[in-house]
Amino acid sequence: MSDFEPFYDVKHSYEDNYEQGPFGAFAEALKGAPSVVSGDSSPYKGESEKKTTAGTAEEPVSGTFLGQPVNLPFGIPAGPLLNSRYTTAAFRMGFDLATYKTVRSRAWGCNPFPNVLAVHPKSADGSLTPGSAELDEGVLADTNYEQPISISNSFGVPSQSPDVWQPDMHAAIEAAGPGQVLVPSFQGSRVEGMSEEEYIADHATTARLITETGAKLMVMNTSCPNEGHNRLLCHNPLLVGRITEAVKQEIGDIPLMVKLAYIPSDDDLELMVRSTVGHGTVQGFSTINTISAKLVDANGNQALPGAGRDRSGVCGNAIRGAGLDMVARLAAIREKLGLDFKINGVGGVVSPADYQAYRNAGADSVMSATGAMWDAELARRIKASL
Ligand SMILES: Cc1cc2nc3c(=O)[nH]c(=O)nc-3n(C[C@H](O)[C@H](O)[C@H](O)COP(=O)(O)O)c2cc1C
Predict the structure, then answer these.
(1) How close is the Cα of 204 to the center of ligand 1, in Å?
(2) In 51-161, which ranges are continuous DSSP H helix?
(3) Residue 367 CA, closest ligand 1 atom number
(4) Catalytic-role residue among 110, 224, 234, 315
(5) Which of 294, 316, 359 is nearest to 139 (CA)?
(6) Degrees to nearest 5, angle at CA 6 with 32 and 314
(7) Residue 224 catalytic?
(8) How confident is the prediction along the chain (386 residues), in pLDDT tens digits per residue?
(9) Which fold has domain 25-38+51-385?
């Protein structure tokens, strides 16, 4: 893989990737086009001179994403697209849905480098099963990036401050071509001493800041740590319900999608749907996020350096089975309750067949993070396969 350059270079820090990326084919795609990143203090409201085309005007529209027409309902979820240079390059490479990496109400630092290691589960097909003993016993992680690729994702959800990300997100929205949609992603920030009411309000504030960029829709990440080790916000459906209530009051008719981690219990998943879609606050779910595993080096020692990093989220090939399972169960609940909401399938999509498998499982749209990082041509390959 020596001549291959993922657009997010895992051998460099998050900060270097933010400043210097994207790399490889995505960098090529940006050449010769007007710059879209507003690194200066120019106002972003009003007339935009930054409109660029993605060269996809002649593509037929074959789907929608939360009401917006899209050429193909396929793209990249929150994570590897760090700013408008990345999202614009993604559009030009034919990813019709480009998610702007999760933003917060305040600047937030990144976990120390390294953040991404290659992960090697024991099973023959390289899969990891939610709830299996292997996740707690330790999975080998190193710098041997083999395909089909699985990686660790240990960033801590860094964010720029709103005065940096708001103008840049506006530029990112403006750079979408015909049949393409920029998808903003956000989450709340739990800081020391914060009450539950303040935590809820932080989500609503961040959602309002996103509406100011001209966003037509947004995704709220609930697959982030809530209270205590390994307990995620999405494991508390009633709290997610209260948060979406507060967010909805800020964003009005703008569609809201909720990003979920793998939820093993059907009852909990149904409660999530009832507490959100059932109250008219949520129009879709994006799932899954990473699966948490203990990561060890070849000697059995902690693979990622530093306190609290014995476990990390794993994504890519290893989690496709879990993602498909979650989408199928969500689709069954949609059917059972007779509710109308969209499902965005995420997790381990590395080939056109994987895209199709998610659509067959009930996903209205599909996204790939790790697979796209290691294959910048993935959207084009899927389109060619249809
Ligand atoms: C480098 C990287 C950074 C990520 N950061 C975020 C994030 O900020 N917010 C979020 O909701 N998910 C984040 N994710 C999770 C992805 O959106 C996705 O749910 C997960 O990686 C599974 O998809 P995959 O198997 O295609 O990678 C990140 C993933 C990667 C690879």
Answers:
(1) 22
(2) 84-92, 134-137
(3) 26
(4) 224
(5) 294
(6) 140
(7) yes
(8) 445 789 999 999 999 999 999 999 999 999 965 544 444 434 344 334 344 444 445 678 888 999 999 999 999 999 999 999 999 999 999 999 999 999 999 999 999 999 999 999 999 999 999 999 999 999 999 999 999 999 999 999 999 999 999 999 999 999 999 999 999 999 999 999 999 999 999 999 999 999 999 999 999 999 986 665 568 999 999 999 999 999 999 999 999 999 999 999 999 999 999 999 999 999 999 999 999 999 999 999 999 999 989 999 999 999 999 999 999 999 999 999 999 999 999 999 999 999 999 999 999 999 999 999 999 999 999 999 99
(9) TIM Barrel (3.20.20)
